[in-house]
Design goal:
Elements lengths: L11 E2 L10 H8 L12 H13 L4 E5 L2 H12 L4 E6 L3 H4 L4 H6 L2 E5 L8 H7 L9 E8 L12 H13 L3 E6 L2 H8 L3 H5 L4 E5 L10 E5 L1 H13 L8 H13 L4 H15 L6 E2 L8 E5 L7 H9 L3 E2 L1 E4 L2 E5 L9 H18 L1
Parallel strand pairs: 1-11, 3-4, 3-5, 5-6, 6-7
Antiparallel strand pairs: 2-8, 7-8, 9-10, 10-13, 12-13
Helix pairs in contact: 1-11, 2-11, 3-10, 6-7, 12-14, 13-14
Bound molecules: pyridoxal-5'-phosphate.
């Protein structure tokens, strides 16, 4: 493996949609933001962002937080007591990518359910429910990840969210939406964020994914939920001071960076259409509804890390998701001109590496 210092700079970064840099317009908005003490409710820019996101998500109130992970963890801390069970798709971020925070912090654990593309229905919730008995864990929350990141960015249809919410609510469970990429789902489906959000007891969106902000996420829910969430925000050290500098980026992104997500989706589709022309390369999730492409190399015989390194040597970054699986994510800093060179480099790497053994 070449050492990092010897590698060329990254020119096409498809590793994650978190790799965006704030644009000049966003930086200008941040620089001129009115600020105050967030913990005292005196930061006008943060308050404006919270009000705007609450309305966008069809909820009463919202709370600005440093990260999406903290949104998930605080929501679980509010919804769960120790020993409670959380129902989520087996590839969900809260299950595999948050340091087992549900267990470590809330004392709750995740019951992963098999769900192709990370999407399930009310019947799956019903069959995962525990009977009400002393020896059984209490089923407490269902998590809907919109879009489903490790489901290839699949969009939960509104009817599926409604079905899951009906079953959950019928049995006294809360519905939490991990909306890291909810706005990608909104743009791809044409369905308003509110329509998804109001079915949920808590819902958040990430500012640092497709929206292109440097920091932040916003968690929304009913007034009582947000009041309880504030205690955890303080406990976890997520309460801030002049956070308007950061919230201004969020407001700017909501004004400028939502509709353009359609461009990211189109580029992901183009990349998908090009890579499947490479012999042996297939798509793990052929639909490619949003900005995520899972590239399956199994039939080429190439190992994903080897291909990753070959691309990295060309200044192109993807991420490894399995022994033969790569992920490419499009975003604000990926232009139409970046797609064909990526597919060409992948084609050359696969050709070279599959003939090498
Ligand atoms: C990125 C992501 C998170 C966590 O968000 P951070 O802002 O990186 O903490 C949670 N859920 C999903 C689906 C994500 O993609």
């Amino acid at each position: 493996m070449p050492d990092a210092a010897a590698l060329p700079p990254i020119r096409i970064d498809l590793g994650s949609d978190t790799s965006t840099r704030p644009s000049p317009g966003m930086r200008a908005a941040m620089a001129s933001a009115p600020v105050g003490d967030e913990q005292m409710g005196e930061d006008p820019t943060t308050c404006a962002l919270e009000a705007r996101v609450a309305a966008l998500l069809g909820q009463e109130q919202a709370m600005f937080l440093p990260s999406g992970t903290m949104c998930n963890q605080i929501a679980l801390l509010v919804h769960c007591r120790p020993g409670d069970e959380i129902i989520a798709a087996h590839q969900a971020h809260i299950y595999g990518s948050e340091g087992a925070g549900a267990a470590a912090l809330a004392g709750a654990f995740v019951r992963p359910i098999e769900a192709p593309e990370g999407i399930f229905d009310g019947a799956a919730v019903r069959s995962a429910l525990r009977p009400l008995r002393a020896r059984a864990p209490r089923s407490r929350v269902v998590v809907v990840e919109q879009t489903a990141n490790r489901g290839g960015g699949a969009v939960w249809p509104l009817a599926a969210v409604a079905d899951v919410a009906d079953r959950a609510h019928e049995h006294g469970l809360a519905v939490h939406m991990d909306g890291a990429r909810l706005l990608n789902a909104v743009v791809a489906s044409g369905i308003a964020a509110q329509s998804f959000g109001r079915l949920c007891d808590s819902v958040w969106l990430d500012l640092t994914k497709g929206l292109g902000c440097p920091v932040g996420a916003v968690l929304a829910g009913p007034r009582d939920f947000i009041t309880a969430a504030w205690t955890w925000k303080h406990r976890l050290g997520g309460a801030m001071r002049q956070s308007g500098i950061l919230a201004a980026a969020g407001l700017y992104a909501l004004d400028h960076n939502i509709e353009r997500l359609a461009h990211d989706h189109a580029q992901a589709r183009r990349l998908a259409d090009l890579v499947v022309q490479i012999p042996g390369v297939t798509l793990r999730f052929p639909k490619v509804e949003t900005n995520i492409v899972f590239i399956d190399l199994a039939d080429t015989g190439c190992a994903a890390p080897a291909v990753l390194h070959a691309l990295r040597a060309e200044g192109i970054r993807l991420s490894v998701e399995g022994p033969h699986l790569l992920r490419a994510v499009t975003h604000l800093d990926i232009g139409a001109a970046d797609i064909a060179p990526t597919a060409d480099a992948l084609s050359a790497a696969v050709r070279r590496l599959s003939s090498a053994d």
